[in-house]
């Protein structure tokens, strides 16, 4: 499945959420709930192979749902890069489908057109991890990443393409193991300039094909 979105007025519901509530996760209570789930599934949480499993799962949930903030971007003045297309790819993050609580692997490619300054490359990876570390849907993740990047550069001249592998489709339901979902969000010049948009999409597809 492929979906496209163009730049628009930011939706307040898509704004980054804080981790205050997540930081208050009671891992002991979560471990107890996992033990109850194992019992309901016909398992014995006290048997050798499952000893410690509820606590390991609870610790993982706490860590995964507390990825940290998207750190402030380091921007570097550089007049000679103006009007270049900058594309950052090869970013692979794991998130969780909020409909079935199953993992999805998201391969992210982001592009922007700088004007007098460059965005530090590590910012892209940190942003991807930040928005992936929660219950998500790929479409929302793509837009959140794009709107955050637009806020960093102060313009809508950004494009984000995400190719996802969803275990909720691969291992349940129709069980299509080779199914992939592609989402694209474009704004500013990427929306108004077909040549620039096509150049970005070509580079993104080439990166995915090489993976």
Automatic annotation (TrEMBL):
It is an enzyme of class 3 (hydrolase). Its EC number is 3.5.4.16. InterPro entries: GTP-CH-I_C/QueF, GTP-CH-I_N, GTP_CycHdrlase_I, GTP_CycHdrlase_I_dom. Keywords: Hydrolase, One-carbon metabolism. One of its GO terms (biological process) is tetrahydrofolate biosynthetic process. The keyword Hydrolase applies. GO terms for cellular component: cytoplasm. GO terms for molecular function: GTP binding; GTP cyclohydrolase I activity; zinc ion binding. Pathway: Cofactor biosynthesis; 7,8-dihydroneopterin triphosphate biosynthesis; 7,8-dihydroneopterin triphosphate from GTP: step 1/1. Gene3D superfamilies: 1.10.286.10, 3.30.1130.10. It comes from the Bacteria. Coiled coil: none annotated. NCBIfam families: PRK09347.1-3. This is GTP cyclohydrolase 1. The lineage of its organism: Bacteria, Bacillati, Actinomycetota, Actinomycetes, Kitasatosporales.
């Amino acid at each position: 499945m492929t979906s496209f979105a163009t730049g628009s007025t930011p939706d307040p519901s898509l704004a980054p959420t804080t981790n205050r509530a997540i930081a208050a996760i009671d891992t002991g209570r979560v471990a107890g709930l996992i033990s109850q789930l194992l019992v309901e599934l016909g398992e014995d949480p006290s048997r050798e192979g499952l000893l410690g499993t509820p606590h390991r799962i609870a610790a993982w949930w706490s860590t995964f749902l507390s990825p940290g903030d998207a750190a402030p971007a380091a921007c570097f003045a550089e007049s000679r890069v103006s009007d270049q297309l900058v594309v950052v790819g090869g970013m692979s993050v794991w998130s969780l489908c909020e409909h079935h609580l199953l993992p999805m692997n998201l391969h992210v490619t982001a592009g922007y057109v700088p004007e007098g300054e460059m965005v530090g490359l590590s910012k892209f990876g940190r942003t991807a991890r930040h928005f992936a570390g929660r219950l998500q849907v790929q479409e929302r993740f793509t837009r959140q990443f794009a709107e955050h990047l637009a806020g960093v550069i102060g313009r809508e001249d950004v494009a984000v393409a995400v190719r996802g592998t969803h275990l909720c489709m691969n291992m349940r339901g129709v069980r299509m193991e080779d199914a992939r979902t592609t989402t694209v969000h474009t704004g500013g010049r990427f929306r108004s300039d077909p040549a620039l948009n096509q150049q970005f999409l070509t580079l993104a597809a080439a990166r995915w094909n090489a993976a």
